[in-house]
Structure formats: structure tokens, C-alpha cells
Amino acid sequence: MKIAIDVSQVVYGTGVSVYTKLLVESLLKLDDKNEYILFGGSLRRMNTLKDFFETLRGRFTSKIFPIPPTLANIIWNRLHTLPIEKLIGEVDVFHSSDWTQPPTKAFKVTTIHDLFPIKFPKLTHPKIVSALLNRFKWVIREADMVIVPSRTTKEDLAEFGIGERVVVISEAPNPALRLPSKLEIERVKRKYQISGLYLLSIGVNPRKNTERIISAFEKVRPGLDLKLIIIGHPYMKIEPVRGVKILGHVPLSDLSGLYSGSEALVYPSLYEGFGLPILEAYKCETPVVTSNVGTMQELGQGAAILVDPTDVNSIAEGVKKAIKDRESLIKKGRERVEEFSWTKVAENTIKVYQKANQ
């Protein structure tokens, strides 16, 4: 089969970017029977796409088009014109990105990571909400199969009447993440000027529950002498708080050391399509405090401390329990993460592609 995959989102440096990169790498490594056509649209970041294609090995051809996201949204999501075949030729399967939904005669597969912009439009930029609503309309009408990372996202989609077309394929932590040495942990702590014991949090925005995490930290800090280190670009204004440090974007090469050097990952997000940091923490042998709802409960059940994400006291008590039960949680997390791999993701995705022949 000829399988086309839109990889435009690899340029953004988001969780969806990581998913796309690792999926494509795993597919090419595993599958030598099918022919892959990888294409992306960008104007300012065409070199990022070129660099990505140069890292790949396997049976594929690549195509890059000078189409910025705004134009792609108008052509494919709003007008829903210009069949993808006009750009890449005839294909058997077309796997669209999570940003645009071009028309095509091929068997249509798409991945929906979560419905956050639709469920919580006030917490998302209006342009993003508009684009994804337009795309979602075409997904409902035309997609043959929809891949989601969790049962939670599948349940969210059920109300739109496409449940029979949805398949759950859990994601996995980046294979580059590994348990670092003590020297590596110290190197990373020196680089970011971190001294003493610290908690780790991922993301700085309302969805990640940043304000409640900081409030919970202030409750536990006096008795435990901790700092709070937050990774991620600050998409919301955070007033300076003693002991809280926001690092911004962190390269993958430093992530293992930051996870493993922490006392616990504090991840009581309000909503996630999957919650990859939970698995990343498990892999780096870091105790996890996460939400008792949705996909976070799925991943955390039996291996993490589950808390009420709307209750600061619950989060604070969860942190205390995670530190107290550190060794037990590390063991449980190590066992849990063994259930997930990118080889499994690729194998199950190929099974979805093969439905084009059924």
C-alpha cells in the first residue's frame, strides 16, 4: 500500500510533534512492506521539516510545500477544497494531522489526541478553537478510522456518533528517556541552578492546573524544605513565589535528569487526552501525583497517588504520600511503564491502515 502521513506538526515542538516523530520513526523501522509518503506544509520552518526527513531511515519519499498553517486551515478546514492527491499523487491510505483535514479519495485515518479545545473553549486561543472545530466537522463526516490515545478520549467522542470508527492506541514514552546516573542528575541540576530537594511539574497554563499546584506546594514546603521546578513555556502570568522556578523549554537530553532528580512529579492536570509525562516519570523512576479523573486515572491507577485536581489540600496530601511511599511507587511505576512501547504503537497503527483492504 501507499500510505501518506501529514507530518506538518513536527515543527511546533509540542507533545503532538513528539507523537508524530516517534510514530513515523517506528513505522519506518518496523514496516518494510508498505511505501510511505511523508509530507508537510510550512513557510518559515521548512528547514525543520527537511532536518526531520534527513534523520529518517526506511522506505519513504518526502514532500514539503510552502503552505503556512493559516492558509492550510482556510483551504482544507474551511473551504475543504484541493484534494491531497493534487499535491502528493494517488495513495491508498491518508493519515491526516491533528490540524487540517484535506479531502481525499484514499482511506482516511486521523489521530485525535484530545477534545480540550472543544470541551474548554475559554481556555484555548479562539483561532485554535475555530480551526479545530472546522476540522472536526470534516472528521465526523469523512474519516474512516479515528485513532485516540485513551479510553477517555474515545468516551469523549462517543457523543458525536463516531464510536464505531474509533480505536484506542496508547502512546509510550520517548525511547531516548532512560534512568540517568547520579553524575547526569548533578550535571542537569547545575545547569539549571537547582539546589536541594525539589518537586517537578510539567506545563504552565490553566489546563495543567498550575495555580493550584503552586498553592499546594506552599502548603507542603515549610515541613519538607522543597523547591518546585516547572518545565514549560509560561502561557499564563505567574506571580513570583518563593521556591518556585520556571525553566521554560527543556531539551530532551536534560529531561531524564530533571525527572529522576526530583522527589515526585506533580501532575494533577484538569484534562488530558493521554498524559505522557506520567509514563515518562515512571520510566525515570520518579513517584507520580496525578488526577483521579480521566486518562490520568487510567495511567495512574495502582502506580501513582491519585488526587482531586480541584482541591489544593488533596494535591498537598498527595505530595506528602508520594514522598513517604517513594520506593513502593517507583517499583509500581517501573512495572506499569513496561506495558507501553512505540513498537506496539506502530504495530497497532499498521493494523488500522490495513483496514483499507478489508
Chain-averaged pLDDT = 94
Strands across the major sheet, in which order? 3-2-1-4-5-6-7
CATH class descriptor name of the largest domain: Alpha Beta
- Please tell me what the overall shape is: globular
What's the quaternary structure here? single chain
Taking the alpha carbons of the first and last residues, their distance comes to 13 Å
From the 3D structure, determine the CATH topology of the largest domain: Rossmann fold
Largest sheet: 7 strands, parallel
Order of helices and strands: EHEHEHHEEHHEHEHEHEEHEHEHEHHH
Fraction of residues in H or I helices: 40-55%
Flag low-confidence runs.
none
Count of discrete domains = 2
Strand content: 15-25%
Query: Structural class, from helix and strand content?
Result: alpha/beta
Counted by DSSP, the helix tally is 15
Work out the radius of gyration.
21 Å
The CATH homology group name of the largest domain = Glycogen Phosphorylase B
Please count the beta strands (DSSP E, at least 2 residues each): 13
CATH architecture group name of the largest domain = 3-Layer(aba) Sandwich
Keywords: Transferase
Domain Glycosyltransferase subfamily 4-like N-terminal: 15-170
Organism: Candidatus Woesebacteria bacterium RBG_16_42_24
Domain Glycosyl transferase family: 204-335
